[in-house]
Design a protein that fits this description.
mainly alpha, Serine Threonine Protein Phosphatase 5, Tetratricopeptide repeat, 36 helices, 2 strands, 71% helix, elongated, E_motif, RNA binding
Length: 642
């Protein structure tokens, strides 16, 4: 461009063509302000504007969103006698439509005596881009009736996108039929758009039919169908179409690789992940940050977090996605302290966090019961103006709830401007897990007063609150009401929660009946039988417990949980031979015993307490204090958990 300007400055007698060339060059290089400046210099030199010059000027204004300047140029257009020239009118119309000034666009559109296919495409696209898909479709119908103008491929694609924005496949199907009649059945650009939009609407069958009838396919075609299948979780089919793509002689590009990595991480195949990573390196594509981040995420999701970490450390130009990906995966793998340490490193590097990053950090703070760390993260959320995002505010509620601070959880909940059913359910669950069952029920009633319909998670939160609060009748009423709600269907978790509620209250026969009802709809799982076994332990019913433990072991033969729960039940009843039997089975089968743990935070430091663990430096003092307190409270000590 510098050479072009040097040559331009050497021209003594510049005409409109030379000015237009240099203005066009500025636009091509995204120097829109310079293009406008060159136009003003041209006018100052005494040279009159031409039709191409005015078109270029409006192009620059369109990119700048300069509405006032475009309106002023409109007056110049009228004075110079260009007001009836369609190409100039179209350029001005595009400025208004692009900036979302639809009233100005409609006024100009109505004033136009002559309209070509570009005119109609601009007005249709303007409404589609500004979230008025219905009006865009109306203009498309009017276009057909107005002078018989035939739409081009660009118009068709715009209208198709408007149909997809309506989130209804029926208009898309109708328009598809019309497109075939217009002769666009073999148009690759239009067909690629159809595949993409059908997939976005979840209609992968129609997307496949479009591909089957295409005589010519390119890499966009194959990437569109593979992307659609991956987004709709048809992973096996996505792999099959990748094979078809290779047979068609189309080489996989960056988009294909990203989709393949999405499939591989769903199957947890780290070997395949390494193979794709090797291909990426051989082709020199590792500099592509989207690909690099996708490989990193795939390694972690396939259980190779160390390989993901190695790739992260080798990445020089880390972006926000790189940081968020590695932090999220450390958090998902339960390595919360390392996730927080990485976040501090990211913070020091002055990389600004987004909502995805903060969700991982809040989850780690919740898992570590790190209340002060959670409050610091809350401050960052406010500083970065993320508190209005519903996922973030919901995550804050969960974090405070798991740290035991229901007051702050409620404060976040009340200040959230965009509550959805998940937010309400989280706050109800927060009350439930912290022993405020009545408050949970009151909030449930308040939720309904706002005409917010409960979902499966809401009912589970209410049932859990009733279970922990001993509210048997309220829990029964909630469960019965859920059964009458046509929008939701009770799952294994709901039944298990109901069994737990009745079992804790000592209604063991009623709990058994709930499990009996499950066989009519869904099979009772280990969670339901485990809840009943736990109730048998609490209430000392070893006869029923003996029957139940067989069910638990039958459902989860490789888990130590059922054996240990039965062992605890027998120990409480002084049935030591049965205790020994359960313990010996665990040892013979080589089952791994997963110890439960508790977390508390004292003076900014989290302390983890695990059953049978004496590694804490103050273990002796802690156990002596606990024994003294239990003696004062006259509790019977459960020998199994001491």
């Amino acid at each position: 461009m510098d050479s072009a300007f040097s040559l331009f400055n050497c021209i003594e007698n510049r005409d409109s063509v030379s000015w237009n060339i240099v203005i066009q060059g500025c636009i091509n290089h995204d120097s829109f302000m310079k293009a406008v400046f060159m136009f003003s210099v041209m006018r100052a030199s005494g040279l009159s504007s031409t039709v191409p010059t005015m078109v270029l000027l409006f192009q620059a204004y369109g990119h700048l969103g300069a509405i006032q300047e475009a309106t002023g140029a409109h007056s110049l257009m009228i004075r110079t006698g260009f007001s009836d020239i369609v190409s100039i009118q179209n350029s001005l119309l595009n400025v208004y439509a692009r900036a979302g000034e639809l009233q100005l666009a409609l006024r100009l559109f109505d004033e136009m005596d002559q309209r070509d296919v570009i005119t109609w495409s601009i007005i249709i696209n303007g409404h589609a881009r500004n979230h008025h898909p219905g009006i865009a479709l109306c203009f498309f119908k009017e276009m057909h009736n107005w002078g018989g103008i035939k739409p081009d491929g660009l118009t068709i694609v715009t209208v198709l996108q408007a149909c997809a924005a309506m989130e209804d496949t029926y208009p898309l199907l109708v328009l598809h039929s019309y497109i075939i009649k217009l002769g666009f059945r073999t148009d690759v650009f239009v067909n690629n758009t159809l595949i993409d939009l059908y997939s976005r609407c979840g209609d992968t069958q129609s997307a496949r039919r479009v591909l089957d009838y295409m005589p010519e396919r390119n890499n966009v075609t194959w990437n569109s169908i593979i992307t659609g299948l991956v987004q709709n979780e048809h992973y096996i089919e996505a792999l099959l179409f990748f094979n078809h793509m290779q047979k068609d002689g189309i080489e996989a590009d960056e988009v294909t690789m990203v989709n393949l990595l999405q499939v591989i991480k769903r199957f947890g195949d780290s070997k395949k992940c390494k193979s794709i990573h090797s291909v990426i390196i051989r082709r020199g594509l590792e500099v592509n940050m989207l690909l690099s981040n996708s490989v990193m995420d795939a390694y972690a999701k396939c259980g190779s977090l160390e390989l993901a970490w190695r790739l992260f450390t080798k990445t020089n130009d880390r972006d926000l996605v790189s940081w968020s990906t590695i932090i999220a995966n450390f958090s998902d793998c339960g390595r919360h302290k390392e996730a927080l340490s990485l976040f501090r490193e990211m913070y020091i590097s002055q990389e600004k966090p987004n909502s995805v990053t903060m969700l991982s950090i809040l989850d780690s703070c919740a898992s570590l019961a790190a209340l002060l760390g959670g409050k610091w993260a809350h401050g960052l959320v406010i500083r970065n103006r993320l508190e209005r995002e519903v996922t973030v505010s919901t995550s804050l509620v969960n974090m405070y709830a798991k740290c035991g601070d229901t007051v702050m959880a409620r404060r976040v909940f009340d200040s959230s401007p965009n509550k959805n059913v998940v937010t309400w359910s989280s706050m109800i669950g927060a009350y439930g897990m912290n022993g405020h069952a009545r408050a949970a029920l009151e909030l449930f009633k308040e939720m309904e007063s706002y005409n917010m319909k409960p979902n499966e998670i809401t009912y589970l939160s209410v049932l859990s609150a009733c279970s922990h609060g001993g509210l048997v009748e309220e829990g029964r009423a909630c469960f019965e009401r859920m059964g009458q709600d046509p929008r939701v269907k009770p799952s294994v978790e709901h039944y298990a929660c109901m069994v737990d509620l009745l079992g804790r209250a000592g209604h063991l026969e009623a709990a058994q009946r709930v499990i009996g009802k499950m066989h009519n709809e869904i099979k009772a799982g280990p969670s339901a039988w485990g809840a009943l076994l736990s109730a048998c332990r609490i209430h000392g019913n070893t006869e029923l417990g003996g029957e139940v433990v067989q069910k638990v072991i039958e459902l989860e033969p490789s888990s130590s949980g059922g054996y240990l729960l039965a062992s605890s039940m027998y120990a409480a009843a002084n049935m030591w031979s049965d205790v020994a039997k359960m313990r010996s089975v665990v040892n013979e089968k080589g089952l791994r015993v997963m110890g439960g743990y508790s977390l508390i935070q004292v003076n900014l430091q989290s302390h983890r307490f695990i059953a049978w663990d004496w590694s804490h430096p103050q273990s002796q003092l802690i156990h002596e204090t606990l024994e003294h307190l239990m003696g004062e409270m006259k509790w019977g000590v459960d020998v199994e958990f001491m």
